[in-house]
Design goal:
Elements lengths: L5 E4 L13 H4 L3 E4 L8 H5 L4 E4 L6 H5 L6 E4 L9 H6 L3 E3 L6 H17 L1 H9 L23 E5 L3 H12 L3 E5 L11 E3 L2 H7 L2 E4 L13 H4 L7 E4 L8 H9 L5 E4 L19 E3 L8 H19 L14
Parallel strand pairs: 1-2, 1-3, 3-4, 4-5, 6-7, 6-9, 7-8, 9-10, 10-11, 11-12
Length: 326
């Protein structure tokens, strides 16, 4: 009888907090699912598994040395900076990720954040609940000026799949779209004008961040760039928290140089209670949920199951660490 493959999910809660089934994955091997695994338990929980699924759990070189049975790591996300992919390649361990599952979900959240900044739906609802409308002489009132998106300029930093889709939706609102991009001629889109990074921040009424994070752009949205933004401009970040110098952004908000900011990602997650952007004026922070619609998580689950099945069939897919040439 053929021995079952051992599959361990080390931090499965964010993918499946209980509203989906693990059955498709369980059909591929002997499955153990942990909602969350602290660092000190990574080795014991991964021991003996030839396939592990991780989201944010750290798989470092020394840990891999102590997991001789490990053959494949499936990351339940697009980013895989929590896995030492080079060390995995040296040990013949395939690292597979998931791409494209969350585009529509993230785009939807971008505009949920933007519309909250412009229309303050939540604040007006709270006002009505406090009795402010009942106490009014007038049939209508606003807590602050409401801003139309039509005619405004949206600047996109990071013009990949999500950035391009954000641009399409922005055009449906009647916005002008500008973007930064390494390959403007190759990836030209109707109605999208490519500009420099400085020009993006100078010309935009709204800047939205969608670039991957790397050493070259960590903290790139700093005081110098923020000072280039128009008075009354808005900043949205659903990309990576590390793109923003967070103390610089708080100062810009405190000084009123920006009308508002909305972020779904922070440089440290979960953040410390004293994080500079939590409680900052005119700043909305949501807990890294833009990707997490039920539909997106179902797509992600399907991709991860497919990645495991492909590896077991000897035809691994979505491999991000190509094998070292022999």
């Amino acid at each position: 009888m053929e021995q079952k493959h051992k599959i361990a999910v080390l931090d499965g809660y964010t993918l499946n907090p209980g509203d989906m089934s693990w059955d498709a994955l369980a059909a591929l091997g002997e499955l153990t699912v942990y909602d969350y695994t602290p660092t000190e338990l990574l080795e014991s929980r991964a021991a003996g598994a030839d396939i592990i699924l991780v989201n944010k759990a750290l798989l470092y070189r020394e840990l891999m040395d102590r997991l001789p049975d490990l053959k494949c790591v499936v990351v339940t996300a697009t980013g895989y900076n929590n896995v030492d992919a080079a060390a995995a390649r040296e040990r013949g361990i395939a690292v597979c990720n998931a791409v494209g599952y969350s585009t529509e979900a993230v785009v939807q959240h971008v505009f949920a954040l933007l519309l909250e900044l412009t229309n303050a739906v939540g604040a007006h609802d709270e006002s009505v609940r406090r009795g402010d409308w009942a106490a009014q002489q007038h049939f209508s009132y606003t807590l602050k000026p409401i801003v139309e998106l039509a005619g405004k300029t949206l600047g996109i930093y990071g013009f990949g799949n999500i950035g391009r889709r954000v641009g399409e939706v922005a055009q449906a609102f009647g916005m002008q779209v500008i973007a930064t991009h390494k390959h403007p001629e190759r990836d030209a889109r109707p109605g999208v004008r490519f500009v420099s990074l400085e020009g993006l921040f100078e010309q935009s009424d709204v800047v939205t961040l969608h670039a991957p994070l790397g050493p070259a752009n960590t903290g790139i949205v700093n005081a110098a760039l923020l000072q280039r933004m128009k008075s009354g401009a808005l900043l949205i970040n659903t990309g990576r928290g590390g793109l923003v110098n967070e103390p610089d952004l708080r100062l810009a908000l405190e000084e009123g140089r920006l009308a508002g900011a909305a972020l779904d990602v922070l440089s440290v997650e979960p953040p410390p209670a004293a994080h500079p952007l939590i409680g900052a004026p005119n700043c909305i922070v949501t807990p890294h949920l833009a990707w997490a619609t039920l539909e997106a998580r179902r797509r992600l689950m399907d991709i991860c199951v497919s990645n495991v099945a492909a590896f077991l069939s000897g035809r691994p897919q979505n491999v991000v660490n190509l094998p070292t040439p022999q």
